[in-house]
Structure formats: structure tokens, C-alpha cells
Amino acid sequence: MRFAQGDLDAVRTGVSLMAVKPGRRQAIAHRHDEAEEVYVIVSGSGRIKLDDDIVEVGPMDAIRVAPTVTRALEGGPDGIEYLAVGQHHDGDGAIQPIEEFWP
User: Fold this and answer.
1) Closest CA to 28 of 72, 91, 75, 80
2) What kind and span of H or E run contains 7?
3) Backbone angles phi and psi of 94, in degrees to 5
4) What span, in angstroms and rounded, lies between the C-alpha atoms of 6 and 11?
5) 19: which residues sit within 8 A by CB, 6+ positions away?
6) pLDDT exceeds 90 at position 29
7) Which residues of 5-20 are buried (b: 16+ CB within 10 A; e: fewer)?
8) C-alpha–C-alpha distance, residues 91 and 62, integer Å
9) Which of 11, 22, 42, 74 is placed for a possible disulfide with 79 were both Cys, Cβ 3.0 to 4.6 Å?
């Protein structure tokens, strides 16, 4: 994970570059109470779990994630790399162990 908010001197905007290895899932699922996010798949493919829905994603797909929706990604055969963009809210959100969210 690479978080660019500080490097950009951004006050309210968060930008992160994230990657998930082939055939692996993120270590945690998370949600936000206030922040809406948009994920843009840069390379690779995989799946994203949004609450109870699972969606196949690939290069240049953009996925809007509403506040309160718990989300996690899984890398496909070549892994997946994506940008996450959203408004930053200090202390916003919660994490959940991946085993509980995506058994």
C-alpha cells in the first residue's frame, strides 16, 4: 500500500495505490462511516466483495463504494493493482478480519 495524501499536501482527499498478490485476499475487510471511495483497477484482475455481493473486475474498471459498505479485494491469476480515491475523514471506519467477512 502507498498512501499519497501527505506527499500531495492534500487536506481532504485521500489517494492510495494498492496491490493484492495473485490468488490472495487482502488481510482485512474495511468500511467507512462517512467516506465514499472510488476504486480504479490499474492492472491485473480479481474480485471485489461489497457486503454480500462479489464482482469480477479488470483493467480500467471503476467501482464506487458507498459509505457503510464493507469491502475487500482478491487478486486474480496475475494479481491486482488499483487506486483508491476518496475524501479523508480522521477516525472514519472500521476493520473486520477477512476470515469473518469472506470465508
Assistant:
1) 72
2) none
3) -150, 155
4) 8
5) 1, 75, 79, 80, 81, 82
6) yes
7) eeeeeeeeebbbebbb
8) 25
9) 22
**Alpha helices, DSSP H, located in the chain:** 98-101
CATH topology of domain 2-101: Jelly Rolls (2.60.120)
| CA proximity to 47, closest of 59, 58, 62 | 58
Find the farthest-apart pair of alpha carbons in the chain and give their distance in angstroms, rounded: 38
CA distance 70 to 20: 17
Domains of the chain, by residue range, sit at 2-101
- The three cell numbers of residue 62 are 471503476
The mean pLDDT value for 60-76 works out to: 96
CA-based nearest residue to 28, from 68, 66, 67, 74: 74
- CA dist., res. 14 & res. 24, Å (int): 25
